């Protein structure tokens, strides 16, 4: 399988090179040249497979023999052995034909573990084979950092540096990162905000000359293709559990950077009968405005109670646009260049029509979201986290057919976001799962750094292992 850039100007890469590349040199994102297609008979034959067996079926065509089958199976087995629930992605019913897909059973309690546990193992495997060492650098406002650290803590060939805004992530989120004490893990608390962190990472990817000879930076944000790929699996898993491919299914996804829901779109393109994909956003609603009113324009960032969806632009939407514009790299290049210059992007009529065939969208502010947590708790005694609550309500508000099962993706465990849960009237901080119960007693390690690029890069240089 070859991987091509959404902007059509960058070198075509193999699977392994694409996951090491991050952004393409033309500013685009890597996507597979063709999508694997599964027939209804083949999908039907997967009913009853374990999550790990299914993951192999879905991902193998993307890897296309670059990793031997037995090795890929072992990578998958190792990845999901750290999950607390034997079903890996269990389903819970919350209303008639409405289900919650619990994607928070991994080590850091958010769906990002599905992709980042896999990416960590995959990088370790590929780098060992190539006898190569890399440096991971990433910025986080919460969930990505801990999931990436957890995924890479045992990788001998990776040094990982994660920047978070000093005093601006929740204590649970900080401790999930800073209590990992392996000597290849470095947490930097930057005296600045999340944008400052992100800008520093961007600048460092742009000019990597500060790194020791022979090292390169690798991205772990959702522009990395391996993350999207690993997320396709749970759409098939939930679909099969609810009667696909004999029956269609629908999904609702709390959306920020559009990585998670894009995987659902790919599942439908690969043969899973998906009737509807619901985009739920918080007040940072660029995607809701785009789908509902063709208004994809930059607005100010709003800090919400669902912080993992606080974005101004959804980076993976470019991959969607690439398909909506019939994979015309030149058209995407122009669209994105204009967007950068003007802060505005209008979809063509045909692109918007195509998008609306599958996608609906809905936006909730904090007050509405809190009411949803309270309402679902009252009716089912099921406690939603704030992100999941947005997806549940977006599904209830825009659902097209009651007779088709609606799967709401639960992207985080409520214990990660006690503030929102308390506001909903829940009488206590939701307890952390057993394996993390002592999180607040664990030793922490992190470096507080001034908001200065040269200082951060010097810190990295001093700590990258020989
Ligand atoms: C990252 C995240 C999201 C948003 O996912 P995208 O792939 O960026 O759209 C939603 N909920 C939680 C809890 C997250 O951590």
Automatic annotation (TrEMBL):
The modification N6-(pyridoxal phosphate)lysine is found at residue 112. Signal peptide: none annotated. PROSITE patterns: DEHYDRATASE_SER_THR (PS00165). It catalyses: O-phospho-L-homoserine + H2O = L-threonine + phosphate. Residues 2-80 form the Threonine synthase N-terminal domain. Residues 101-330 form the Tryptophan synthase beta chain-like PALP domain. InterPro entries: Ser/Thr_deHydtase_PyrdxlP-BS (IPR000634), Thr_synth_N (IPR029144), Thr_synth_N_sf (IPR037158), Thr_synthase-like (IPR004450), Threonine_Synthase (IPR051166), TrpB-like_PALP (IPR001926), TrpB-like_PALP_sf (IPR036052). Its cofactor is pyridoxal 5'-phosphate. Pathway: Amino-acid biosynthesis; L-threonine biosynthesis; L-threonine from L-aspartate: step 5/5. The keyword Lyase applies. GO terms for biological process: threonine biosynthetic process. It comes from the Bacteria. CDD domains: Thr-synth_2. Keywords: Amino-acid biosynthesis, Lyase, Pyridoxal phosphate, Threonine biosynthesis. Its EC number is 4.2.3.1. Belongs to the threonine synthase family. This is Threonine synthase. It comes from Porticoccus litoralis.
């Amino acid at each position: 399988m070859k991987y091509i850039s959404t902007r059509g100007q960058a070198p075509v890469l193999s699977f392994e090179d694409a996951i090491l590349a991050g952004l393409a040199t033309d500013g685009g994102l890597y996507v597979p040249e063709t999508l694997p297609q599964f027939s209804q008979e083949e999908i039907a034959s997967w009913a009853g497979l374990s999550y790990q067996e299914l993951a192999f079926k879905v991902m193998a065509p993307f890897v296309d023999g670059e990793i031997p089958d037995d090795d890929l199976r072992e990578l998958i087995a190792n990845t999901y052995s750290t999950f607390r629930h034997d079903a890996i992605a269990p389903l819970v019913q919350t209303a008639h034909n409405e289900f919650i897909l619990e994607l928070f059973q991994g080590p850091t309690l958010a769906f990002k573990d599905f992709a980042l546990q896999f990416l960590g193992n995959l990088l370790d495997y590929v780098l060992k084979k190539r006898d190569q060492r890399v440096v991971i650098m990433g910025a986080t406002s919460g969930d990505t950092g801990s999931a990436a650290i957890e995924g890479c803590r045992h990788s001998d060939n990776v040094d990982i540096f994660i920047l978070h805004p000093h005093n601006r992530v929740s204590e649970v989120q900080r401790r999930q990162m800073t209590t990992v004490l392996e000597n290849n893990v470095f947490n930097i608390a930057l005296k600045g905000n999340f944008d400052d962190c992100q800008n520093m990472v961007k600048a460092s990817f742009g000019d990597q000359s500060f790194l020791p000879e022979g090292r390169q930076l690798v991205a772990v944000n959702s522009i990395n293709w391996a993350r999207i790929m690993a997320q396709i699996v749970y759409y098939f898993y939930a679909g099969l559990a609810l009667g696909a491919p004999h029956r269609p299914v629908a999904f609702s996804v709390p959306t920020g950077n559009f990585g998670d829901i894009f995987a659902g779109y790919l599942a439908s393109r690969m043969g899973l009968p998906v009737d509807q994909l619901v985009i739920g956003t918080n007040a940072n609603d660029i995607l809701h405005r785009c789908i509902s009113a063709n208004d994809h324009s930059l607005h100010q960032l709003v800090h919400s109670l669902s912080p993992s969806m606080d974005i101004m632009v959804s980076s993976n939407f470019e991959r969607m646009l690439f398909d909506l514009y019939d994979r015309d790299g030149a058209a995407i290049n122009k669209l994105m260049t204009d967007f950068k210059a003007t802060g505005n992007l209008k979809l063509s009529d045909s692109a918007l029509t195509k998008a609306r065939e599958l996608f609906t969208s809905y936006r909730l502010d904090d007050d509405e979201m809190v009411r949803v947590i309270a309402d679902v708790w009252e009716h089912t005694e099921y406690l939603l986290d704030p992100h999941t609550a947005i997806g549940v309500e977006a599904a209830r508000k825009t659902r097209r057919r009651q007779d088709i099962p609606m799967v709401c993706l639960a992207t985080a465990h409520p214990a990660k976001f006690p503030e929102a849960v308390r506001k909903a009237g829940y009488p206590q901080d939701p307890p952390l799962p057993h394996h993390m119960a002592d999180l607040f007693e664990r030793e922490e390690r992190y470096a507080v750094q001034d908001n200065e690029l040269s200082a951060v890069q010097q810190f990295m240089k001093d700590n990258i292992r020989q």
